[in-house]
Structure formats: C-alpha cells, structure tokens
Design a protein that fits this description.
This protein has 177 residues and is an alpha/beta fold. 38% of the residues lie in helices and 15% in strands. The chain starts with a helix and ends with a strand.
C-alpha cells in the first residue's frame, strides 16, 4: 500500500511539473534555474518594461544570437514566476553587427555562403510571446539590406539610437551594449 502511495505521488508530481515546462512562452528556450533562498524574484504584480540591445553577432554563423537567447530566457523566467503576458513589455532593437540576422532565410543564405539563418525560429517564438522587434534603418542602409528581405516580425525604424532613447523615455530598462 505504501509503495502504491509513493508511485501515485511520484506520477502526480511528474505530471504536475511537465506541463509547466511546456507552457512556457518559448518552448525551446531555457529558464533561469531555481536558487534556494534567493530573495529577489520576478513579481507577478509588477509590469516589466525591458528593451534588449542587439548590436553584436553570434560567435559562429550557425548559432543563435546570444542576446536573443537571453531575451527568451528572460521571457520564460517571468512566465515561470507567474508574471502575466500583459505585464511583460519586452522589446528587441537590432543594429550594428546584430543587423544581418533580421533577414529572411533566403537573403541571409545568399550573403552567408548558403548558411541558414539560425535566428528565425526564436524570433518567431518571441514575437508570438509578445516581444516587439525593431531594426535600425541606418544599419539596414549600411549593410545594403533590401527592406523587402526583412523578416515580417521586425519593424524598420529610422535609427536605433532614436528607438532606444524612446523606449527608455517610456520607462523601459535598457539591457545590452
């Protein structure tokens, strides 16, 4: 009887934890690991306004941009701690060396010796989770990117400097360079 109780308890616990992981907004992204005794945790009653600055490229052409991975981890962590979607105001601004990843797969492959754009999936997942994407128009011009090749999830702005300042004036915390 006791073994039956333990088995049922284990199955119940397993079934209770598995859906929580699949319910994360970005299913294939990480979430911050639990830290026993940690005092500062995401607050479900607070609205988080954060703009991530993507001005760097991944170390390797086939890797997801590290700031996109950080953004996804942050979104998942907020969700894990019960911060509702309408309290997660997250934006990403691409510029400088982070600009090239805004292109469609075909355009990216044409510029990168046939390599697929590894960022498309995470950008789509983040967009579906409510993340706002912007790209610097000055960088688009500098890199000679045809605007029709920008992924549809990404808004073309005049200049990253203006966009980043505007987000900060609207109360967003700036993360990145």
């Amino acid at each position: 009887m006791f073994r039956h109780f333990i088995l049922c308890t284990s199955l119940f616990t397993c079934c209770m934890t598995a859906p929580a992981q699949s319910a994360l907004p970005i299913p294939n992204a990480e979430v911050a690991r639990d830290v026993p005794g940690a005092k500062e945790l995401p607050d479900p009653n607070r609205t988080y306004k954060v703009v991530f600055d993507v001005g760097i490229a991944a170390d390797k052409i086939d890797e997801v941009n590290p700031m996109l991975a950080v953004t996804a981890r942050y979104v998942n962590t907020l969700a894990k701690f019960g911060v509702p979607a309408d309290h997660r105001k997250i934006a990403v601004v691409f510029h400088q060396k982070g600009t090239e990843i805004i292109q469609s797969n075909e355009a990216y492959k044409a510029r990168n010796n046939g390599h697929d754009n590894p960022n498309i999936t995470i950008i789509r997942e983040l967009k579906k989770a409510g993340v706002d994407f912007r790209v610097c128009g000055q960088a688009v011009l500098a890199f000679k990117i045809d605007p029709k090749n920008i992924q549809p999830e990404i808004q073309l702005d005049l200049w990253a400097l203006t966009t980043l300042v505007d987000f900060q004036l609207d109360g967003y915390v700036h993360i990145g360079r």
